[in-house]
Write a structure and sequence with these properties.
9 helices; single chain; 6-stranded mixed beta sheet; alpha+beta; 18 strands; elongated
């Protein structure tokens, strides 16, 4: 078995495009694990899975190998690695692979790497574990903070329907665009009517209109207007809860001549919901004792929400989503500090080795 070179693995990973197809990246991951004496498998959903040890606690390390487009080529200087996926999430992946190889778990350790977190999360939704896990650690750029919660992300479409008419007769005709204006105003007051959850550190939920579509011809009053909204939810709100609450809120803002319908956007897998792991769980306390970093919510939705339904879950990893200049992950300046990747690897190794003792 050869030594695992975390820097070489990271640099090679970032040089492999995985925004359209993850096959090459997955092959590189499988070959790396195989060269270190493990026997990874790839399931029908494209997940790469390998295990070591037996018994309890069963800890799962999870992150993803896909990235958003466009591909950005690798380059480096001093301590930094730049390129698409550097922090989201090939930096975390390098740390997780190192920890999987080098840790000494008292129970069972599973490395489960998903292929499509940035899209449908079909891989994460299909993951199956023979032994029910006791803890999940999900790799995302957290600046080495321990993220024990995150808001969920739901998406809904609001469809307002009226009637077509000639624009020259607008003074005699109702216009769905006028209703759209009323609906946009009503969206701003939605959360004021919802119960406040004070049990988590996530703060208030967010409701944001992101797309508006209406009309086909400039001389015709449209018969319909569609508003797409982005919902960043907090526990215990589910996607269905959100839809029902929004329907109830908006029904009072529609004139009798128009109709409104609300539907959750179609998705082949469940939405990434909110999650919260209390700070007094063994998983969070172990991270706090070893890393000494702060505990806070993760600011984006992630596949951690799926796993939190099974066992206590935290999000942890090197890199940041944004810095003082602006966006880092998903941006044209994506980077990760090598020193932070190495530090994350050592923290993870210690947590895995001590959790459950």
């Amino acid at each position: 078995m050869t030594n695992f070179d975390i820097v070489s693995f990271l640099e090679q990973s970032v040089q492999i495009p995985s925004h359209d197809d993850v096959d090459e990246m997955r092959t590189f991951l499988v070959d790396t694990l195989t060269s270190h004496g493990f026997e990874p498998s790839v399931d029908s959903a494209g997940n790469t899975i390998t295990t070591r040890g037996t018994g309890s606690p069963h800890i799962v390390l999870n992150t993803h190998i896909d990235t958003v487009p466009p591909y950005l080529p690798f380059h480096s200087d001093s301590d930094m690695v730049y390129g698409r996926g550097a922090c989201d999430a090939k930096g975390p992946l390098a740390a997780f692979v190192y920890a999987f190889i080098h840790s000494n778990p008292s129970g069972k350790l599973t490395l489960a790497i998903t292929p499509d977190e940035e899209l449908t999360s079909r891989g994460a939704n299909a993951l199956h574990f023979d032994d029910v896990p006791d803890a999940f650690i999900v790799g995302e750029p957290t600046n080495l903070d321990i993220c024990n919660a995150s808001k969920g992300r739901f998406e809904a479409k609001i469809l307002i329907i009226g009637e077509n008419a000639h624009a020259a007769e607008s003074h005699l005709t109702n216009n769905v665009i006028d209703v759209c204006v009323s609906i946009l105003a009503a969206l701003k007051t939605f959360d004021k009517e919802q119960p406040v959850n004070t049990e988590t550190s996530l703060g208030s939920p967010l409701l944001t209109p992101t797309i508006i579509k209406s009309g086909d011809f400039s001389n015709q009053i449209p018969s319909k207007c569609e508003i797409t909204v982005d919902r960043r939810s907090v526990p215990p709100e589910s996607a269905d809860d959100f839809k029902l609450s929004l329907e109830s809120h908006l029904k009072n803002h529609i004139p009798k001549w128009a109709t409104i319908s609300i539907s959750l956007s179609e998705r082949e897998t469940p939405f990434l919901g909110p999650f919260f792991t209390p700070e007094d769980t063994n998983l969070v306390k172990c991270f706090q004792q070893i890393s000494g970093t702060k505990t806070r919510p993760f600011t984006a939705a992630s596949e951690a929400s799926y796993f939190s339904l099974i066992a206590p879950t935290v999000i942890f990893g090197p890199g940041v989503l944004t810095d003082s200049t602006g966006a880092v992950a998903h941006s044209s300046r994506e980077y990760v500090p090598i020193s932070e990747v190495k530090k994350a690897a050592h923290i993870l190794t210690d947590v895995i080795s001590k959790l459950g003792l």
